[in-house]
Amino acid sequence: MTKNPKRRNSQLPEIWRRFRKNKVAVLGLIILCFILFLAVFADFIVPYEKCIEQIGSERLQWPSRRHLFGTDDLGRDLFARVIHGSRYSLMIGVSTSLMALAAGAVLGASAGYFGGMVDNIICRIIDVFMCVPPILLSLAVVAALGSNMKNLIIAITVSCIPGNVRLIRSVVLTVAEQDYVEAARSYGTSHARIIFKYVLPNAIGPIVVNTTMAISDMILSAAGLSFIGMGIQPPSPEWGALLSNAQDYMFTSLYLLIFPGVFILLASLSFNLVGDGLTDALDPKLKD
Asked: Are 104 and 168 within 8 A, CB to CB?
């Protein structure tokens, strides 16, 4: 009826072997691990007080041994703000993707498994949301709820749900026709148990890949909203907010744009590269 857990665990070395063959994906994983290291150990690398400490005599200083990334217009250490800002960006990217995945799994699996009226109702509601570009939908939600971190997470999650529902529905439509699902039905297994124990676990490959790559989009969305003042508000050191603050000094203190921009680029690129590697590693058609 379902795959043996031991067999599934035995596939992990094979998946890792396939993943390692993609050198670009491995590079993305290394970059991702580096950024995660900075985010987890940010307090040990540089105290948070450096993010908010304002030293007027050191404002707008270019990178030096004392300030690795220079200082901003208020004399705050940019290295500390970028490092601690990684926590905000990664937390938003991961949390919104996981919440959108949870909602998408329930709605998409229900639509694909039950079909009929349930499928029509869910798909028509999703069609309404998909008529609005994700960034505009996020802006509308933030404008209605207010600009803060909680509302930013809600807004980005809402904009990400329709795509997850569509993907999971399409995968479940295929998996739901398999013999082991029919066998589970014949034994009188409940619909919820079939969906969460048999259907979703056997459709996990495309879902994992999509979620990994969606984190990249969520990081960019959060940075974009913060850049236009609709996301995390100062003095929180979020990467998009740092770019927004640096606009007035782009011709005199270019480093204020370069360092946050590079970290946004690396974080987004690393998730995309890892997702691309997982696409090949989880593809059962690839034997070599």
From this structure: yes
